[in-house]
Amino acid sequence: MTGLPQAATLMERMAARAKRRRRTRGRVARPAVPRRKRGRNPAARLAGDPRPYYVPGIPAVRRPCPDLARRRTNAPPVTRFQKLAAVTIVATLLLVTLGVVVRATGSGMGCPDWPTCHGAWIPPTDDYKAWLEWWHRTVAAMIGFLILGVAFLAWRDHRDRRSILWPSVAAVLLVLFQAWLGRETVRLNNSGESVTAHLAAAMSLLGLLVYLLVRSSYPAWITGRGASQRFTLLATFSAAATFALLLFGSNVTATSQWYVFPDWPLMDGGLFPALTDMNSAHVLHRWVAGVVGLVVVGTGWVAWRTQRSHPVLVRLGLAAAVLFPVQALVGGLQVLTGLEEWTQTIHLALGAVIWVIAAALAVAAYYEARYEARLAWAPASMTPAAPPANDEPAEDPGAGPDPDPDPDPGPDPGAGRDPGPGPGDAASVATSSRRSDTVRAYVALTKPRIIELLLITTIPAMVLATRDLPGMNVPEWLRLVFWTMLGGSLAAGSANAINQYLDRDIDLLMVRTRRRPLPANNVPPENAVVFGIILGVISISMMAVFVNLVSAFLTLLAIAFYVFVYTLILKRTTPSNIVIGGAAGALPPVIGWAAVTGRVEVPALLLFALVFYWTPPHFWALALRIRKDYEAASVPMLPVVKGVPETARQIALYTMLLVAISLVFFAVAKMGIVYLVAAVVLGAIFLWRAFVLWRQASSPEGSLAQAIRLYRFSISYLTILFAAVAVDTLIVSSFA
Q: Fewer CB atoms near the end CB (10 Å): N or C, the chain?
């Protein structure tokens, strides 16, 4: 009997549970979450809450949280293309390491002919140097077949994805070029230039393979637009700096300057030894390594602080930041051990691994931002039925219809006449017009008028630098001028395009800039930043291949300083933004000097100072004219923060410094009478206009008129003064 009450209690509990289930049948349990605050963007909350939010009139699509840790749990299996690309990357790293072993052991000429070895396909059994070189060539041939397989799978599995197909074809062409460079290296008896070019081609091939692997890991069609690509810019700069450092290291070996300093990290007991032809490559390599190390470690720190929702970016950034100090220590061991073979091998192998990680970080950062924007919010009415077949992004869903559809054109005034061009011709004309408008928009992104002003300061510096190199002939100088001008123009266009991408929000608020391509919606923001990055890569590559490594690295620094230091850090935080940020615009004369001489000397630094102190009076005069625009955009330019009188006073003070430096340059650079007359006359006029502006600063109309006159004269001042540098140099050289 004791079990009956327990059984009755159990049956009552079961009946209560069944009753509760009947009551809640058809309902969906919702987790208790805080109530959404008024005015909060639903898409922003969606990043942390997988439940959809609903906007009246637009049904929402349920999207998963964009956290990669959750997305990777449902990631598709690794494809055969990705497996082959990964194997090819590992094999290429092995080839680079084997190449270092060949070079460290002096086996580069173990096989003096190519493609055979001592006239046979199998080297002599008693010659280990020949066998090392033979294995190096054999692994290179195997990688060639692997890359052919990558291209075949790209055509077989991804022929509808141009972002994979065409880079795969480029990889095949690049490996053929690499093979030709290998033959030339043997023919030139392992000359320094050929070895450096061989390494640069191998690193470029690695970067291209990394892109293919990373790109194939993301969906073929990524519609995400509007995501911030700021971290992508930082990661790209870190990768480019790492690539440049590898070339600097190869240049040290090419010039046989590895052991000019027996101590490390100091150089003859100091950090800044005197530069000579016998040690300049080694000194520059250590200085550049210090700068690149700060960039790589800083990129890892930024990834850890800002990209925690993207674990893959955090891991890549921290891996590069940890490996770089290790590689630097191994580089120090090279010096301390007298260039032991194992130190050379590990040093370059680690450098190649860091380059692979940095390249993967840059590519992944771009697609992670795009993918996150895709997951953030996607109304069903804006979701296309099927992706395009060519892997191109869809049109902007908010573009709307033709702005001037002309619904009622009225009677045809040409009735009864020759109908003229048919619909097909009209469509072709419209297509041609759209293409020309697109081309003009991309050209406008580069700010061509600013590029002209930068080039004005480059050529006179190259003319002056030639005075100290009497052995340089005219064709060689003209070749350097051509490639320096082309590379400098592309570099300036790169910096300006990225600047417009970063400033597109404030450009929309300013009357002077709201017609630029991005505020006017003539170019998508993501296309603008990719366009700027591509221009920068091309410009730095041109400078490295056709000019020299010093000018290439200075070009990279100019782009980075303008984008990161001025645009991202200073412009919106301090009224001294243009003073410090003007260093980027003052680098072209230094780049021109380094293009001719291969180093940076005192006259080049004075030309840098000349442009540096010219920039504040020039730009503040313009800021006085458009200060209302800067005030509307909340940009703390000096006229907005300090007012017109203080700005006019600062213009006068900086003009005095500018004129003083122009006279110091006359004495240090040993200029002639032509330059002296130009510096004195132009400086006097500049000072007079600056002091007139200062005196009339209390009058709004008078100060505005004087600011416009000063701004226009400042352009003429810089143009005529640098032209005087070139003319004076040519006259002095002709009399000498």
A: N
